[in-house]
Each structure stands twice: as structure tokens, then as C-alpha cells.
Amino acid sequence: MFRRSDGMCFACSPRNPIGLHLEFSHEGDICRTTFTAGNEHQGWDGVLHGGLVTTLLDEAMAQWLWHRGVAAMTAEMLTRFSLPVPVGVPVTVEAWKEGCRGRLWELSARLILPGGKVAARATAKFLTVKENG
Ligand SMILES: CCCCCCCCCCCCCC(=O)SCCNC(=O)CCNC(=O)[C@H](O)C(C)(C)COP(=O)(O)OP(=O)(O)OC[C@H]1O[C@@H](n2cnc3c(N)ncnc32)[C@H](O)[C@@H]1OP(=O)(O)O
């Protein structure tokens, strides 16, 4: 059920023709990616669709776990959209761990605009479904 071997993740696979093709780096406790939205990612004119803002935040948190050998699914997520995210500008997404109890992981993430303002924040709970190693 949780097989990922076809490598077609909408957020991170380089092979998904309609995917976001995100690449992640890890520095200390932070998982980070950058993304520049195109016109095809809009909701309101010129503004990144909120569902895709949530996707960016969700994926960064999932990748924080994946990088540490944990295959976990998002069980709950709360997103605060503070500012519109314009298309055509590179934004940074960062995720980090808040805590862990057994299979339950709590993480946070934020999306940062050029110039440093935080446009969106999320907190989420993930449940380990299997080890990825
Ligand atoms: C190719 C290379 C790729 C690389 C990378 C990939 C990275 C990955 C990218 C992925 C993409 C990005 C990520 C995505 O988009 S993941 C996709 C979106 N998420 C889903 O589809 C998840 C759907 N849900 C489920 O499948 C199940 O509900 C899961 C698996 C989550 C749990 O079902 P399971 O049957 O396993 O567990 P359980 O229900 O017995 O619960 C167990 C315990 O946990 C407690 N509990 C449950 N929920 C919550 C909660 N919200 N807060 C607090 N507690 C909670 C629960 O009370 C119980 O506690 P207790 O009674 O034992 O005390």
C-alpha cells in the first residue's frame, strides 16, 4: 500500500511530468527547499494556490523524516496563510521536528518570501508506517 518504488511523487519526483520537482537539502535540524511557482500553479491571479502552499510545507516535513530513515504519513496538518505567495519568485520552505512519541511525530514548517517575510506556517502530526531503510 505504501510502496514508493514507482518514484512518481507529485512533490519530489524528477520523473513526474506534472510534478513540482522539489529538491531538498538538510542542514542541522532543518530540511530546506526552494520553489518558484509558475502560472500553472495559480489560484487567484498571480498567487500560488493555497493547496500547493500546503503541499510544499507537507512535503518538507515528510522529507525531514524520510532523510532520517522514517517513512511516515501525514495524519493531521494545520496551515496558517499569512501573506499571498506570488508566482514567479523563488520562495524557501523550511521544516523541523518539534517532538516525537512512539510512532507519532510532530513537525513544523514555514514558507519564506524573498526578503524574509514568512507567508505561511504549518504544524503537523505524522505517523510512522514503516522504516524506509
Ligand atoms: C522515491 C523517493 C522518495 C522519497 C521520499 C518520500 C517522502 C515521503 C513523501 C510523502 C508525501 C508527504 C506526506 C503525505 O502527504 S502522506 C499522504 C496524506 N496522508 C494520508 O493519506 C494518511 C491517511 N491516514 C492513514 O493512512 C492512517 O490514518 C495513518 C497511517 C495515518 C494511521 O493509521 P494506523 O492504522 O497506522 O494508526 P492508528 O489510526 O491505529 O493510530 C495509531 C495511534 O496514533 C494515534 N493517532 C492517529 N492519528 C492521530 C493524530 N492526528 N493525532 C494524534 N494521534 C493520532 C491514534 O489515536 C493511535 O493512538 P493509540 O490508540 O495507539 O494510543
Explain what the structure shows.
This protein has 133 residues and is mainly beta. The protein has one domain (25-131): Hotdog Thioesterase (Thiol Ester Dehydrase, Chain A, Roll). It is built from 1 helix and 6 strands. The protein has one helix spanning 50-67; strands at residues 25-27, 30-36, 70-81, 90-101, 104-112, 118-131. The protein has a 6-stranded antiparallel beta sheet with strand order 1-2-4-5-6-3, covered by helices on one side. The model has no long low-confidence stretch (mean pLDDT 94). It binds tetradecanoyl-COA (MYA). The site of tetradecanoyl-COA (MYA) has 17 residues, from α1, β3 and β6. Tetradecanoyl-COA binds next to α1, β3 and β6.
Mean pLDDT: 94
Shape: globular
Q: What order do the helices and strands follow?
A: EEHEEEE
Cofactors and ligands present?
A: tetradecanoyl-COA
What can be said about the biggest beta sheet?
6 strands, antiparallel
Strand order of the largest sheet: 1-2-4-5-6-3
The CATH homologous superfamily is termed: Hotdog Thioesterase
The total tally of domains equals 1
CATH second-level architecture: Roll
